[in-house]
């Protein structure tokens, strides 16, 4: 027997990742506070994902304490029936919280993409694609929150489900949520890559920026492991799992907690940079935004127009700020924005016209453009 079917293994997993996820979420908001950054939708959805994860961990500890998670199923049928109703309620609640946690984590990632790439007054294809993803993930979340409550038919009580379990197609639900969750994870992970690789940057820089987003590969690995386990349980079917349903349920809980935890920690990873390296997440945000603004143009006059797109909404004499980083809002207040090395390649196409000046005289800095003689 492995750790994924033992009480000690499940308890250790839940306890360890409860601390790690809590720490990563706290650091995320500490970074926002210290940098006076705006709390936006990616932060709110991450907070909801953490609440869902706390519920998952609590239910795992509850199942262990009641003996239907992490232990072999008793041979005495009376003991099994004594906790059957409690077990059903706990597992249905677990399914609902799983869908909520997975969905909120995916939404947090998509909103994070919008925070970085969808700013300023102009809309592009990526802007509309991310809106579609927000709607798609929201629909997925609502669907798999509602389905566990109606597996045996609408308006059926849990007590009815216990006595008529053979009429409920739990395995179709397991297959549906596992496969669709994996597909969505892959889609969300690769979503920003075409945008990054379409920019006018060096290959090395494209790889570097891509790696920032591919940190979530650890979450995809956990999603893959969960998919494999779920497919094994589905392949066994009701008859194969009937010998010890406790073991199968423990595996379902174990790998759901594993995937949720890895995803939460991975998405909150950039918040750790502030304490480890003293690099605020907003500075990283604006470094990437500088690349996008300065490297997205492919025309000879792109250096000028790209900076104008970034600064067109700022009133004269005002500095740019990262604290308002919503997709539709211009940046205000002072931050240090870095002009990446690729700028030289862009400006050289205009014969030296279009100079970026970084003013460091105040706490933040402003971007100025000097188009040179016309």
Automatic annotation (TrEMBL):
Keywords: Membrane, Transmembrane, Transmembrane helix. GO terms for cellular component: membrane. Pfam families: Fung_rhodopsin. The chain crosses the membrane at residues 12-31, 43-68, 88-113, 125-147, 207-229. It is a multi-pass membrane protein. It is found in: Membrane. Its main location: membrane. Residues 295-334 are annotated as: Disordered. It comes from the Eukaryota. InterPro entries: Rhodopsin_dom_fungi (IPR049326), SAT4-like (IPR052337). Residues 27-276 form the Rhodopsin domain. The keyword Transmembrane helix applies. The keyword Amino-acid biosynthesis does not apply. Residues 298-322 have a biased composition (Basic and acidic residues). Belongs to the SAT4 family. This is Rhodopsin domain-containing protein.
């Amino acid at each position: 027997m492995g750790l994924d079917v033992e009480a000690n293994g499940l308890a250790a997993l839940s306890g360890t990742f409860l601390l790690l996820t809590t720490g990563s979420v706290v650091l995320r908001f500490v970074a926002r506070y210290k940098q006076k950054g705006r709390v936006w939708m990616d932060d709110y959805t991450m907070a909801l994902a953490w609440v869902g994860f706390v519920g998952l961990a609590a239910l795992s500890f509850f199942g262990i304490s009641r003996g239907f998670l992490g232990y072999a199923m008793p041979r005495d049928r009376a003991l099994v029936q004594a906790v059957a109703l409690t077990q059903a309620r706990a597992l249905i609640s677990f399914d609902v919280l799983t869908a909520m946690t997975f969905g909120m984590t995916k939404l947090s990632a998509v909103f994070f993409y919008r925070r970085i790439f969808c700013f300023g007054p102009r809309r592009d294809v990526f802007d509309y694609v991310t809106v579609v993803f927000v709607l798609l993930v929201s629909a997925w979340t609502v669907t798999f929150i509602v389905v566990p409550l109606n597996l045996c038919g609408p308006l059926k009580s849990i007590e009815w489900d216990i006595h008529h379990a053979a009429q409920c197609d739990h395995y179709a639900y397991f297959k549906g949520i596992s496969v669709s969750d994996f597909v969505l994870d892959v889609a969300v992970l690769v979503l920003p890559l075409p945008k990054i690789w379409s920019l006018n940057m060096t290959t090395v820089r494209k790889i570097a920026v891509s790696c920032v987003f591919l940190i979530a590969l650890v979450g995809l690995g956990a999603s893959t492991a969960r998919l494999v386990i779920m497919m094994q349980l589905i392949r066994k079917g009701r008859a194969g799992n009937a010998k010890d349903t406790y073991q199968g349920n423990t595996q379902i809980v174990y790998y759901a907690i594993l995937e949720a935890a890895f995803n939460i920690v991975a998405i909150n990873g950039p918040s750790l940079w502030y304490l480890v390296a003293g690099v605020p997440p907003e500075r990283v945000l604006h470094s990437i935004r500088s690349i996008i603004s300065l490297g997205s143009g492919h025309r000879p006059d792109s250096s000028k127009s790209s900076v104008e797109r970034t600064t067109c909404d700022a009133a004269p004499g005002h500095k740019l700020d990262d604290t308002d980083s919503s997709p539709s809002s211009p940046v205000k207040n002072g931050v240090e924005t870095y002009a990446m090395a690729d700028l030289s390649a862009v400006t050289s196409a205009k014969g030296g016209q279009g100079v970026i000046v970084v003013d460091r005289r105040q706490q933040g800095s402003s971007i100025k453009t000097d188009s040179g003689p016309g």
